[in-house]
Specification:
Blueprint: H1 2-11, H2 16-27, E1 38-39, E2 42-48, E3 51-56, E4 61-64, H3 66-73, H4 81-90, E5 93-94, H5 99-109, H6 111-114, E6 119-123, E7 130-132, H7 151-161, E8 168-174, H8 182-199, E9 202-208, H9 216-224, E10 228-232, H10 237-243, E11 244-246, H11 252-264, E12 270-272, E13 274-275, H12 283-292, E14 297-298, E15 301-302, H13 307-311, H14 313-316, H15 320-339, E16 345-346, H16 347-357, E17 377-380, E18 385-387, E19 399-402, H17 408-422, H18 442-449, H19 460-478, H20 480-489
Parallel strand pairs: 6-8, 6-17, 8-9, 9-10, 10-12, 13-15, 14-16
Antiparallel strand pairs: 1-5, 2-3, 3-4, 7-11, 17-18, 18-19
The structure holds iron/sulfur cluster (2 copies).
Amino acid sequence: MNFLIASWELCKTKTSKEVKVAFSFYEDKGPVKVEEFEVNRYLTHKFDKEHIVVTTDHGGWVCLNKEEFDLLRYNKIREDPQLYKLLEEKGVIITLNNIESITRQLRNKFAHVSRGAGLHIITVTLRCNHTCVYCHAKSKPLEAEGYDMSKEDAKKVVEFLFESPARDITIEFQGGEPLLNFPVIKYIYEYSQELNKRYNKKLMYIIVTNAVGFTDEIKDYMKKNNIRFCSSLDGPKKLHDKQRKYFGHKSSYDEVIKKFKELKKDFNFSALPTITKESLNYPREIIDEYLKNGFSNIMSRNLNFAGFAKQLWEQIGYSSEEFLEFWKKVFDYELELNKKGKKFLDSKIQVILWRLLTNRTRGFTCFGSPCGALIGQISYDYNGDIYTCDESRSFDIFKMGNVNTHSYKDIMIKAKDIVSLTSGFASMCDACPWHPYCGTCMVATYGAQGSVVPKLAVDHECKIRKGMIEYIFKKILYSKEDRDILLGWAGLRKTNGK
Ligand code: SF4
Ligand code: SF4
């Protein structure tokens, strides 16, 4: 933990002179004479005696064999100059040569904590023309009254989100089915464009829709104003129709595929499947369905204990082990396709690879410590209620206020509690070797355990995330062919560790 404090101090430093001051502060024992190196705080995971992965807080990692690891832990690395050099390169030891690089990596890793919320998810209606078995938004029937966002609340939401200091702002429209309240989407688009003449931010817009409600008028408006969308496809017809029931229609699948064909002419869009117990039977078929419909990537979503999914967990849920078994089959199949020359990318694995292999600042708001709840994304319900993130709308505990009564500043004062909750330091995540790249989800934990502080031994989401990272690491460490494909997914040519 002491090194974490040092890291935060180091984040603020720029020159080597200031670095020495930071070290003095960290040690808290008066000035420290920095000799040739200091061993960084590290954690380990042993795959076998030839593959012991050593990770650091700033995200650098290295894979050692037992002899090399013994030199590190017994402080004898000077006996092996090549090892010394490697550990310096990855920041497992800290020297005056690498301190600025470690600082930069830490700054990137935590950039999302201070840049302001950039993703604003607006529920323009809770009404929906589907009744999906797992809906976390607890959608309302088409004819229900009082669940559409009003223009007055929409105006307040737009004014609220412009208070964020973030330079890049994405406004994401969700539901229910957001196309059912398209007039309010138009209003938000137009009012935000007008306000932006004063703020000059980079604005992006995206609609998360089941796609069946597209009309020519909606398509034209979106094309003209560069509003993007993404959709859902759970897999083959049998599976999709079982999970995504379309009010008053025989098959959601038929309608969705028809729309996708039309929309492909004008839009470049993606879709995602939600994985239920039924989906576990179709690992290859789901990927084949995406290929058949012209998609070259996929980002699947596992179920959370929230919304309808929590109520129906016995019928549609699964254990983390069952999910992981499925996920590995999907991953293996994706690699198999790539080996045959078919370019197909798993976007969720790509996000994890970016964490493991690059120093990119974090865009994806989940899967991190702290995650992006409130500091990276904010969710607004149809009535202006403010939630920490999209998935949290199922639980009142995550309601932070309302746009009619709270300012951005009021909400950000509460953000420090959310950051400490999601930092992993309130749980055992800080003793986990994957903590630099991962973090559990307080919403999933609350849904499953009734507490925002997870009992990690039983945490469903933690087991899934841990299993994924370890499997990805195995692919990187044990197979050159797999590694080359994954380096390609990460946008890298070749590397051993970061
Ligand atoms: S609480 Fe969970 S769903 Fe919300 S941003 Fe964090 S990881 Fe994502
Ligand atoms: S959620 Fe689990 S795997 Fe991820 S950092 Fe925490 S303890 Fe490690």
